[in-house]
């Protein structure tokens, strides 16, 4: 359950603008929610729809308990229509069907709301049909178009919508939201350090492949600390079989970078910045193996390895060279 205060914490400007729509009784006929995946566009759209339909709301805040609010939560409100891509695109027929639905009188009230997800994926024909719809808006109709790439949409559609820009979430806020979603504190810190996309972070938390990434990074560090002569063996027999694609190797290197950043944070007593919060003893041991300067050098080596992966250098060669550098 989201409230307007919670949404304002995630997206202060967009949240305040929509709340003001209710306070001033000036709800636009069309909105364009533009921002990266995981920035709260769908949650904001649902909350806005609830505020429109809820008959027991206080100010802009829906009650969350009435029939309208519950039906929106369950996806069964007859006057709220969702359109999502059918395959790779949103097709003309989907917009035609929506227009037909809107010729009928509302079942619960005269209000009707439609939400178009990934609106930038409309075909040209679908976009033109929607444009006709937007050119003759009903006073009782509200549209919300959600997109990651608003600049690829027709200018004529953009000009008929009130644009709301959704900003990337800051790491601390992502971490707090992840903990609220039941993610452990240690995982939340790691995930928030890797992405400011809340949806992606939650998906990574459920991904068994990613869970093993953290383990492999810790195992690599232990090998480098205690059995450096076995480093190349570990890379070829443990690391590479898990990281089969270049994007996966990049993710592993990202986590490895966080480890060496933590070593430096340990030296400068920045405990609040440490990501591997459950590995404090290992971090203490790491400071005996790597000085602050050598840890900084290791960060440089990992960054260079990431660049080589992007340049299509053979992954095995990149990882073997990196291992030798980290052993110095």
TrEMBL record:
Keywords: Nucleotidyltransferase, Transferase
E.C. designation(s): 2.7.7.7
InterPro entries to which the protein is assigned, alphabetical: DNA_pol_HolB, DNA_Rep/Repair_Clamp_Loader, P-loop_NTPase
GO-annotated biological processes: DNA-templated DNA replication
Pfam families, per the entry: DNA_pol3_delta2
GO MF, one example: 3'-5' exonuclease activity
Class in the EC hierarchy, top level: transferase
PANTHER family noted in UniProt: DNA POLYMERASE III SUBUNIT DELTA, REPLICATION FACTOR C / DNA POLYMERASE III GAMMA-TAU SUBUNIT
Name assigned to this protein: DNA polymerase III subunit delta
Native organism: Halobacillus locisalis
Source species taxonomy: Bacteria, Bacillati, Bacillota, Bacilli, Bacillales
Gene symbol of the encoding locus: holB
């Amino acid at each position: 359950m989201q409230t307007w205060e919670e949404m304002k914490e995630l997206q202060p400007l967009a949240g305040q603008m929509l709340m003001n729509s209710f306070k001033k009784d000036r709800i636009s006929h069309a909105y364009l929610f533009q921002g990266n995946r995981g920035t709260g566009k769908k949650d904001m759209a649902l909350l806005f729809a609830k505020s429109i339909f809820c008959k027991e709301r206080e100010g802009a805040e829906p009650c969350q308990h009435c029939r309208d609010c519950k039906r929106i939560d369950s996806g069964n409100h007859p006057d709220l229509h969702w359109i999502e891509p059918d395959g790779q695109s949103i097709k003309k027929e989907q917009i035609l069907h929506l227009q037909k639905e809107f010729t009928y009188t509302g079942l619960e009230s005269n209000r009707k709301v439609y939400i178009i997800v990934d609106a930038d994926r409309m075909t040209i024909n679908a976009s033109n049909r929607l444009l006709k719809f937007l050119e003759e808006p009903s006073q009782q109709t509200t549209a919300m178009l959600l997109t990651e790439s608003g600049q690829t949409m027709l200018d004529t559609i953009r000009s008929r919508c009130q644009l709301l820009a959704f900003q990337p979430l800051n790491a601390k806020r992502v971490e707090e939201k992840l903990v609220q979603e039941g993610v452990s504190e240690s995982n939340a810190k790691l995930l928030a350090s890797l992405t400011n996309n809340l949806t992606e972070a939650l998906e990574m938390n459920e991904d068994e492949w990613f869970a093993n990434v953290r383990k492999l990074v810790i195992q690599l560090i232990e090998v480098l600390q205690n059995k450096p002569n076995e480093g190349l063996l570990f890379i070829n027999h443990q690391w590479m079989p898990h990281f089969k694609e270049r994007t996966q190797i990049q993710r592993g290197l990202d986590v490895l970078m966080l480890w060496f950043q933590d070593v430096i944070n340990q030296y400068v007593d920045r405990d609040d910045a440490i990501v591997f919060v459950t590995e404090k003893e290992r971090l203490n041991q790491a400071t005996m193996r790597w000085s602050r300067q050598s840890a900084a050098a290791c960060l440089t080596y990992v960054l260079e390895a990431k660049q080589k992966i992007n340049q299509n250098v053979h992954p095995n060669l990149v990882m073997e060279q990196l291992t030798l550098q980290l052993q110095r």
